[in-house]
Design a protein that fits this description.
9-stranded mixed beta sheet, LRR_dom_sf, globular, 242 residues, 11 strands, alpha/beta
Length: 242
């Protein structure tokens, strides 16, 4: 998409919801916008182009009333500055890769975020770490949905690792205060390719990467697996057999 065409769309006088499924959009497209949209409330960018922190800052300056944001973000530079506090965004769905310190910086600047859905491809956080993020940076958070890739797991103590991790999500903060539950699927067969996925329940993403039943060992923190282990949002399935 050319900057000219994007500016034409941005100038639509009643533009409120914008869903872009375009794969040739520049990662600096927001800095090229020439006008401010006061009507845009929801923006979803569905492509694999990762956007740095500065794109979110540029976007907020061009859409100060934006309430919903869905995009792929790449926060490789933990020292990148984020000069604005984005007070309007209340709902965000992020595909995240990069440095955890940069992710903390992003959360620090989203103080009114109420609903967060995040797919973390590079790192995972324990229940204690998520709790601290919520207390320190996201005091208004009501709904947290995530999927985190866990690798590598130590060959000889895989189940002990998983139990220790899940126990950080079995605290009063998770179970009693918020009723947030998680599940972990992992390959119990020791080896160099051992990995797992940790995600909130019910499952909140269109893509589910499953581990074949014979190679999968699931554990969860919810009291009733039939009630919470729901996958009705899944549209695409990847199955790992080995």
């Amino acid at each position: 998409m050319t900057p000219y065409l994007f500016n034409q769309i941005w100038n639509l006088p009643k533009l409120a919801y914008l869903n872009l499924e375009i794969y040739n959009i520049s990662d600096a497209i927001f800095s090229q916008l020439k006008t401010i949209s006061l009507t845009l409330e929801s923006l979803c960018i569905q492509n694999d182009i990762p956007h740095p922190l500065r794109d979110i800052a540029d976007l907020y300056q061009k859409a100060p009333n934006l309430r919903v944001l869905s995009m792929n973000i790449n926060l490789k530079n933990e020292y990148e500055k984020f000069p604005v506090v984005v007070t309007s965004i209340m709902t965000s769905k992020l595909d995240f890769c990069g440095e955890l310190r940069a992710l903390h910086k992003l959360f620090q600047n989203l103080p009114n975020l109420c609903h967060l859905t995040i797919d973390m491809q590079d790192h995972y956080l324990t229940g204690h770490e998520w709790k601290q993020i919520t207390i320190d940076h996201l005091p208004k958070l009501k709904q947290l949905r995530f999927k985190m890739f866990i690798a590598p797991l130590y060959d000889t103590i895989i189940e002990e690792e998983i139990d220790e991790l899940l126990n950080t999500f079995r605290t009063q903060f998770w179970l009693d205060e918020h009723h947030w539950y998680v599940r972990c699927d992992w390959n119990p067969i020791a080896g160099s390719g051992t990995f797992g996925y940790l995600y909130t329940l019910p499952y909140a993403f269109r893509l589910f990467t499953g581990i074949a039943k014979g190679l999968r060992r699931p554990k969860w923190t919810c009291p009733d697996d039939e009630k919470y282990c729901l996958f009705n949002r899944v549209h695409n399935l990847d199955c790992m057999e080995s």
